Amino acid sequence: MSNPITITIDGKEVQVEDGSLLINAIREAGVDVPSLCYYEHIDPPLGTCRVCTVEVNGRHQASCTTLARNGMNVVVHDDPTLHDTRKAMVEMLFAEGNHFCPACEKSGDCDLQGMGYELGVQMSRFPHLFIDRIIDYNPKRMVIEHNRCIRCRRCVDEVLTDDGKRVFSFAHRGNDTEVAIDYEQEAKLNEEQAMRAMHICPTGAILVRGKSLARPFGDRKYDIKGVHSGENVPMEKPLAPMGSNGEKKVIATVSLAGCFGCHMSMLDLDMGILDLVDLVEFNKSPLTDIKHFTKKVDVGLIEGGCCNSENVEVLREFRRKCDILVAVGECSIWGGLPAMRNMVPLRECLEEAYLHSFTSENEAAIIPSHEDIPKILDKVYACSEVVDIDYFIPGCPPSANHIWKMVKNILFGAEYSVVYPEFKYD
Amino acid sequence: MQPISLARPQLLNAIWAMHDVKGFLDDNDIGQLSTLFGVSAVEIEGVVSFYHFFHRQPSGKHTIYLNNSIVSEFSGFEEVKRAFEKETGATLGKVDATGTFGFYETSCIGLSDQEPAALVDFCPVVELTPQKVKTLIAKLKSGAPAITVCDEPKNNIRYTPGERAFILKDYQPGTALQKLGELAPTDVIQQVKDAGLMGMGGAFFPTGIKWEGCRKNASNRKFVVCNADEGEPGTFKDRVLLNTMPGLVIEGMALGAYAVGASEGIIYLRAEYRWLKEKIEQTLEDFREKNWLGDHIPAKQPFSFDIRVQLGAGAYVCGEETALLNSLEGKRGEPRTRRYFPVERGYLSKPTLVNNVETFATAARILESGPVQMRELGTKDSPGTKLISISGDCARPGIYEIEWGMHLSELLTLCEANDPYYVQVSGPSGTTVSMKERNRRLCKEDLVCGGSFMVFNKSRDLLQILLNFNNFFKHESCGICTPCRAGNFILNRKLEKLELGLCSLRDLVEIEDWGVTIKQNSRCGLGQLSPNSIIDAIHKFPEYFDSRVDKSGSRLSRGFDMERAVREYEEAVEA
Ligand SMILES: Cc1cc2nc3c(=O)[nH]c(=O)nc-3n(C[C@H](O)[C@H](O)[C@H](O)COP(=O)(O)O)c2cc1C
Ligand code: SF4
Ligand code: SF4
Ligand code: SF4
Ligand code: FES
Known about the structure:
heterodimer, A: 426 residues, alpha/beta, Ubiquitin-like (UB roll), Rossmann fold, 3 domains, five-stranded mixed sheet, five-stranded parallel sheet, B: 575 residues, Glutaredoxin, six-stranded mixed sheet, 17 strands, globular, binds flavin mononucleotide, binds iron/sulfur cluster, binds FE2/S2 (inorganic) cluster
């Protein structure tokens, strides 16, 4: 160090180089701080995502755009609200874009997703915006998936042609801000340059045709462990485990607008399920085929969101009958794959499905409606938009271990930690 | 086309020049600019699409921008809009079938004292009524150029504190500049410091310290920039200053330049004030003739300085000083990261002094009248006077030069606000004030005001106001950082839910929590201040929100409305 200064990080004094980037200083001191847009080669740093926010002398600041100065008092983890703030930034990015991880080429290699795991994001506290965005197939080598772009600006600054021209630029402003690609310049990129663009993009927004699935799922960056350290995903513990009154606990489950995948996953516990039935009994559930509640239930597990009026009624009944409701899986948490239709007006969806599809006969085709069939809602609603939901278990589907660990924790206060391979959005 | 590269800072002007020809840029224009500036087409697109006065589709032979600020909304925006649509045949946001009129809405155009107001080919028309619109459009149709049918906006200077007026008083051009004959640059800074001048653009940073900082940064080239972007809805004081005393502002800039050692000045004039450009440029010309600008400005130390006017192109965020610098450099008006102050690295990475119009004008007055006189006015922490732009529900909207320290109630009486219920001080980014606070004082010690002062009476719906503000931020966010770009959109959804009567107490808590998240984590002042009014309003008007939220605490409902959710389906199957 040519010019050492002293700063305080979470109450500990450390020596760092004067004027070094705070984010690096913090990391060199052995303290983790998350980041998303920060990319070491880009100077000055972009400072767009705000995921690296820490407290500097009492004020929130992005650590990637702050220079370390003597005497700085930096809080990274000591104040838990800071962790929550960083989490909120990631949740906002999820809510703002249209991220369907199970259908995404980048899943497992995606920094946004990885950051979600790293911070233990179980759901976005913010309502998903479902803005209709395009997928641009015009570029020669690339496909630009605007639904997934987090406007980090990396591509704008970093992807240049050999003659120094920008391939990407931001266009428009406000929530309409998007990356625009220059087709002419993009065509000048060679394969290697295009691949680099795909790699520096922290999400699945930049794809190179034919190359995006090169690395197999299961073998990807965030499949096994976190971005920075640790084996466990930091989870907010369910608060008060229910007291025991000596009786078996009662569970109910249901699949609303879901694919039964979450229920299949519940069964994936294999032999473990035998242990489980010693501890709990199942009431209304497709697993027992009990159609109606016969008693008060401790925990209701909800798969799927609400896409029609019946889903809403069933969900409300679950809320009435269950002390605790858990949203299991992405569809239940925020709409998931069925919510792909939320970007398109309902009428268009219905007309496409029933009137203009290949199999519909011209004259006879109608949009089904009858007093006995449920009405389709204007969009797919997250369960938490309809009733109060107590806990969320992400995944598409969540792993069996994740589900039952959490349920056992809720019911019996059992030891509770979820390792990275169990915590997934896809 | 010559394949030479033009310097990037000329991009905005180059776009304007092309844009003026036909009211939009076509692909060919973009290609030409790309060649001229030696950058990719997408980069030009990026700049063009950032500023809302630049179009990529035809915007009509005549282009009309109707102001959609809240004061306009309350003064008849809807009926005036309908009148424009009827007379021009163009629906809002579009061009009519003949291509004659393009009709758009735009954020505050600095005429809140004469709403509803609009710009027609960048010429102002004020106090619009359906009848007035009809006559106006008829004249345009008959071939009259906009300049001949537009209005000369009134200055509406309603109040000055008589003998104690410091800014709005008789102006003898050159008086301040003359003082430079006896003063060294450091003396000028000392006087500004002694007077206790603070920045009038809203941040109230001590001007003397800023000038000193800029002076201390050694460089072969420095700049002085006058921030005439005045975009905060409800503010129009800079408009009146530039309209009545452009010379005073120019003198202030020259003093600043002398003080910090700069020889180049730029006035960044918002495009909404394009109608003032000629007057300012004429004044600059007069100054040059008198040797008050140029290479031989009489002063104790050798001093050369000149000023040009740079026109903006419609972006509120460009009032933020680092966004302004980017805009001056021909880029998208995105604020920079806070790594350097402009006085360290500003325009073209050179030390740059950025001050507000009123700050420069006041600085000139300090040299004229002396710092002592200013100290005798106002309060200890905020000496002097302040120009306040009053609009909304009062009989006398306009400009008030008040001594810092005036009680809110006194100002409300002066402007004849008969039944005030709520005042928005310093614009949507500022402070929401209820009448319980009428005894508060406008000064640094209590309640600061950057210039905008909007009065609303009981008949106005608070939520409509908050939604208008939120839409403003949602639209004007530069879009580069997560909390401001996404957060304001998310808040918008919540406010809509509130409007539909579907919110519970928990939603109110969330609105506030999320507002704080946006405030704390946004990159620049726009995001940091954007949720202020919502958060304030929830605290200061609890009775209003109480009547609008579900307090049952039911776990069965999170504001889901079945009837609404199935309406689209029912319509689709009926058809
Ligand atoms: C979103 C935003 C908009 C602003 N708009 C203006 C403006 O229109 N005019 C202005 O003088 N200052 C504006 N400011 C403040 C400027 O960043 C800067 O503080 C000011 O120009 C400095 O001059 P002063 O010290 O003389 O006030 C704005 C700030 C923000 C964050
Ligand atoms: S993997 Fe990443 S980019 Fe793809 S949908 Fe998920 S979060 Fe979005
Ligand atoms: S395309 Fe990728 S790299 Fe570019 S801004 Fe979007 S997320 Fe960032
Ligand atoms: S706070 Fe808003 S205006 Fe400021 S940098 Fe962020 S997005 Fe842009
Ligand atoms: S990593 Fe610091 S702002 Fe994105």
